[in-house]
């Protein structure tokens, strides 16, 4: 029954990577809490880098400056 | 003042269906809790089927297999 | 698979009322979107009235003033 | 470490306005709670006006009627 | 109509500080986006330091080590 | 920068288990998406079983019936 919500920036995450996130997060619930994987839900939110800020700065701008 | 957040897969839900969800969720707060409908908010999030997993699987793949 | 999150103030909502909210929200997904009730989840968050504001005011204070 | 989530309707909010929201929300944590701005995160969600309801009505329709 | 959710650790934040957070977050919506304060909602979640992690560590332990 | 929110029922999850959830969720972001663990946040919400429903039923009642 656990519910995991993963928020990441929208950087071209592939369908395969999303599948890995879903599997890994579900397995974590099994390993640590002995939860039933069949009823574990994972929802991934992809957030535009203009819409995410840390340390008062937009991620868009932080990345430009760091060249990454 | 209640706030209802509905998360569903993005399957071509129509504007009319969304209106029905908003009305129904608001009425539920009135019927069960005697809340004021005027200040009840409903927010609907439509999630890509690649981004939603249950039972370790992406909904995209579960639907392919079930033919639905 | 829908997920409904209901946020309400913590005003002594009973177990029976919560059951009614869960049933009603699930039925709404069935009626409007033809969703499977077996995999529909509802999570209710009860929020302290000091922690909820509307119109710049805490609900705690709004209620004192209105006498309700 | 605070985390602020701002949900607004998707009305052409500019990158500059989003930057102002991020700065303002972060500064609020510093001013009121003496939090460290470097680890304060802000995430902005822009919601379609069909997907947001208040008083049983979609914001899309409320705006049409009010002419705004 | 904006909705602001503030998540902070549960460190004895006072009712007055919560009122300041509600006022400040609402005013930010007015100043930056010209929103109506009367329908702006703010919800504050206080999270136990055992339940919040950053950099793989619980905030409870990070604070012990830093002596803060 | 990823943010992971884990919602589970409040069943006496220990501080050590929470630490394992935080580490595991953070490591998943490193392994799959090459994210920086230092800025990855995890927040765990523990939900009362009266407040969580699946298949129209409260988890409290589902557990009584299953004897688990």
TrEMBL record, chains A, B, C, D, E, F:
Keywords, sorted A to Z: Isomerase
EC id: 5.3.2.-
Top-level EC class: isomerase
Domain 4-oxalocrotonate tautomerase-like: 2-58
Catalytic-site annotation from UniProt: 2 (proton acceptor)
InterPro entries in alphabetical order: 4-OT, 4-OT-like_dom, Tautomerase/MIF_sf
A Pfam family per the record: Tautomerase
UniProt GO MF annotations: isomerase activity
Family as reported in the entry's similarity comment: Belongs to the 4-oxalocrotonate tautomerase family.
Protein name as it appears in the record: Tautomerase
């Amino acid at each position: 029954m656990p519910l995991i919500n993963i928020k990441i920036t929208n950087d071209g995450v592939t369908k395969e990577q999303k599948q890995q996130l879903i599997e890994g997060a579900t397995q974590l619930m099994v390993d640590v809490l002995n939860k039933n994987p069949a009823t574990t839900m994972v929802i991934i939110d992809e957030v535009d880098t203009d819409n995410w800020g840390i340390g008062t700065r937009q991620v868009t701008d932080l990345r430009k400056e760091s060249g990454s």
